[in-house]
Amino acid sequence: MTEFLVQHGSLILFLWIFFNQLGVPVPAIPYMLAAGALAGLGRLDLGLLVMISVVAAVPADLLWYEIGRRRGVAVIRFVCKISLEPDSCVRDTERRFARHGASSLVLSKFIPGIETVAPPLAGLFRMRRSRFLLFDALGALLWSSVFLGLGYVFHDQVDRIVREAARLGGWLLAILSIILVAYLGWKFWRRRRFLRELRIARITPEELRAKLDAGEDIEIVDVRHSLDFEAEPFTIPGATYISVEQFEEGHEEVPRAPEVVLYCN
């Protein structure tokens, strides 16, 4: 296995990171640690590995950027639907992007679930392509340097872990599978509980229309994120727009009525 990685490691690293950044669920970090460890053992060149990682990551991110630029909000929602945090993915990513702008691209690769969403979000909000490429390349350089560097520095420990894993064989695979299934089960249970609680206080568009037609005293508040509102500046007729940030801060403009209906994206 070591000889195979030494002979084909650069090509495998390129493909592995490229598909990882496209959103294919292949874990890039373990392979980067292993490649860094081989560099620490003098079998591969660390500088070349870092360069290959950046060259692999940036084109994949640029593809997502162009898709976000052309398809808009729809692609962000699609990417978030397949993330582990589909209910908060859009909001969390937009909040980071609004707060840190282009600099958020530098650290986005260290945050699972955000790394795939950040590039199309940059395209959605029309960040200049040159600016995107600069910050995305810096992020890819930092990300690859950290994990390849960790493998390089701790190559003896990585080698020992690999040997122990080989000795355990099928038992290790079974243990890791159980941990993964347990983690996904916990995330699924949390999401089901969240959606169940949400349904208790939910009203359908048809029910709201019926209440409005009946003349009931209802205030409607649009609490979409400011970036969403800029992308699609339309509201339900009669609704008051208050950004989610203002709403969470207890803004004085929040209406007071017998019944208040909030809606977001």
List the keywords.
3 strands, mainly alpha, 265 residues, elongated, 5% strand, 3-stranded parallel beta sheet
**Fraction of residues in H or I helices:** 55-70%
User: Taking Cα atoms only, what radius of gyration do you get, to the nearest Å?
Assistant: 23 Å
Q: Could you name the ranges where pLDDT drops below 50 across 5 or more consecutive residues?
A: none
N- and C-termini, Cα separation: 48 Å
Number of helices: 13
Class from secondary-structure proportions: mainly alpha
Largest sheet data: 3 strands, parallel
Q: Helices and strands, in N-to-C order?
A: HHHHHHHHHHHEHEHE
Walk me through the structure.
This protein has helices at residues 2-22, 28-40, 46-71, 73-81, 89-100, 104-107, 118-124, 129-153, 155-168, 170-200, 205-213, 226-231, 244-248; strands at residues 218-222, 240-241, 259-263. With 265 residues, the protein is mainly alpha-helical. β1, α12 (226-231) and β2 form a beta-alpha-beta unit. The longest helix has 31 residues, at 170-200.
Offer a quick outline of the entry:
The protein has about 260 residues and is mostly helical. Helices cover about 70% and strands about 5% of the residues.
